[in-house]
Specification:
Blueprint lengths: L12 E7 L5 E7 L6 H19 L12 H13 L1 H13 L31 H13 L4 H17 L3 E9 L14 E9 L8
Antiparallel strand pairs: 1-2, 3-4
Helix pairs in contact: 2-3, 4-5
Length: 203
């Protein structure tokens, strides 16, 4: 994983098998984000498990016809250029017109010149806390994701005093195209405008 990919040369993924001292076997996969995303990871893991189960009983795995990344890209471009895509573009231009100023958190300031370097913060919720959050979400007629997004928004409002915010949420475009078995990079960013002012809608 410490070796960079040559992006103009295939393959853009490497796999290795590691035998641990306790007898366990680990499959280690490294792939460029140009061809692999979080959705693809789920597809890969599911197909690997399917192949493992089949081989354990002496059978060859039965694969569905693989989805084509090129076909996916072409259909996405056609969707963006078509009536639906242009209507969506007009909606988001209106929703994101006159953007609020970039927030400035108390413990960090945007660099100058500004970059988009970022990191990932991971946290694990225990069973009791997770159950409590799900109960709160259900009580307010929301999904767990919506409730967590609301929580993050309120935290940012408290930290910055700014009530009009835009938060970018990554999502897998494969789900829109019903191409659940596609291994590719289909990540898109959905800019959600959130306003915590009383009576103000969010989009």
């Amino acid at each position: 994983s410490a070796t960079d990919f040559q992006l103009d040369q295939a393959p853009l993924a490497r796999a290795s098998i590691v035998l641990l001292a306790d007898g366990r076997v680990v499959v280690h996969l490294v792939a460029s984000h140009l061809v692999f995303d979080g959705w693809a990871s789920s597809v890969f893991n599911a197909e690997l498990a399917q192949a493992y189960r089949a081989r354990c009983v002496g059978l060859a795995p039965q694969w569905d016809t693989p989805a084509s990344p090129l076909s996916f890209s072409e259909s996405e471009n056609a969707r963006f250029a078509g009536t639906e895509g242009q209507a969506s573009l007009a909606h988001w231009k209106q929703a994101l017109a006159h953007l609020p100023k970039a927030i400035s958190l108390s413990d960090r300031k945007p660099g100058n010149p500004r970059t988009f370097a970022a990191d990932t913060v991971r946290a694990r919720l225990d069973g009791q806390r997770l159950s409590h959050l799900k109960e709160q979400a259900r009580a307010h007629g929301a999904t767990l994701f919506q409730w967590l997004l609301h929580t993050v928004t309120e935290l940012l409002v408290q930290e910055t005093g700014q009530q009009d915010l835009v938060i970018s949420i990554p999502f897998a475009a494969q789900s829109l195209e019903r191409r659940s078995a596609l291994i590719a990079d289909g990540v898109l960013d959905l800019p959600v405008r959130l306003n915590s002012s009383p009576g103000e809608p969010s989009s």
